[in-house]
Amino acid sequence: MNERRSWYFYDWANSAYFTTVTAVLFAPYLTSVAETAACGEPGTTDDPCNTDLLVAGVSVSPGSLVFYIITLSTLLSAVLVPLVGAFADGSPSKRRMMCAYAWVGSASTAAMVFIAGSNWHLGAVLLVISSVAGAASLSIYHSILVDIAGPDERDVVSSRGWAFGYLGGGTLLALNLVLVTAHDAVGLDTQGAVRISLLSAGVWWAAFTIIPFRGLRDRPPRVTDARRDLMWRSFGRLYTTLREARAYPRTLLFLAAFLFFNDGIQTVIASASVYGEKALGFETGFLIGAILMVQFVAFGGALLFGRLAGRTGTKNMIVAGLVGWMAIVSIGYFLPAGNAPLFLVLALGIGIVLGGTQALSRSLFSQLIPRGREAEYFALYQACERGTSWLGTLLFGVVHQLTDSYRPAIFALIAFFVIGLAILGPLNVRRAIREAGNLEPKVV
Hints:
Blueprint lengths: L2 H37 L13 E3 L2 E3 L1 H27 L5 H17 L9 H29 L5 H28 L8 H26 L14 H15 L4 H31 L4 H29 L1 H21 L5 H28 L6 H30 L2 H6 L2 H11 L4 H7 L9
Antiparallel strand pairs: 1-2
Helix pairs in contact: 1-2, 1-4, 1-5, 1-6, 1-8, 1-9, 2-4, 2-7, 2-12, 3-4, 3-6, 4-12, 5-6, 5-9, 5-11, 8-11, 8-12, 8-14, 9-10, 9-11, 10-11, 10-14
Main location: membrane
Keywords: Membrane, Transmembrane, Transmembrane helix, Transport
Membrane topology: Multi-pass membrane protein
């Protein structure tokens, strides 16, 4: 198996976490666990429950809890992941570091099988661990793209990685769809089927990470400073990265655009299942089917965007994707409850733009960073993703708590796409590539 294919398999491995866990099952499941903690077991009273949870002395709506937990995990990632990247460029084995963090994340994901009853606390801890570990592994994974693909190949290679990931995540999600919808046939209730599905995501992530662990090869580090004090050196490299990044103002502008529009993307993904269940009234099985369709459409969408980027330019395709996201959020706000055909059309649109915008953002950023500092800058990239992703989930949670409705919460996310587009639109990416000291691709 060649090295690129081994690299693709990490997208295949970790996408199970982002589809089965974060995109579909975890948010509505933890919300139901939080509702049980606040209101007691369902069916014990005929009165609707409007009781809030008391979390660290603060009254929190059970419907907003999971979004606040995601907010906490993203803030922790923003602080910790840059330290990982600062050390990774000097590591003799990025491969081992990436896989070590992956296995920590997968183990905490598998442990979600033990979340039951009213024990939302365990769910909160496991989500934070899996999210931070996953972000750390991805920052190193992204940086390896520069080692395995040249400037004119990265759009295609990055897009194939994302496409492979959607195919892998969709395959496991299909199996979990069968389990959740046919749970009675195997002697499980809905909660039991969901818990086993969460377990399967952790096992899948861990097992398929073995392929890049064995297939990727180590390269001598380009950063050769001594590592006698790991924490001090990591903070030192992070400080140096932040200081020197000012020499690449257009790279920083791209990061600013990315952190806004990616925040919108991540929050739409994280809230889609809750929105579909609570605002539109769809059952869990239908929602898994819709997300499953998104996965397989996104497989083709990522490949399509990668191919079109070679003709029309990477930046132009990202801009087209952002316009598509703005349309999707607007349509979602007006979508009538229970209208399954329109919901599936919306899911089709998400699938087309989802993989393309993310894959091309990764490949374009790889052109804007100085050689030998890939893990550091991709850690900064990941930190920008994590450092503001809490804004989207926080905004979603606060708007829901203030209005007691998910519709204005979902529509509020359009602001992130508008701001990202306003920053990215006038950006001269060719000049940014030259400023970073890299060769310009033929089309960008």
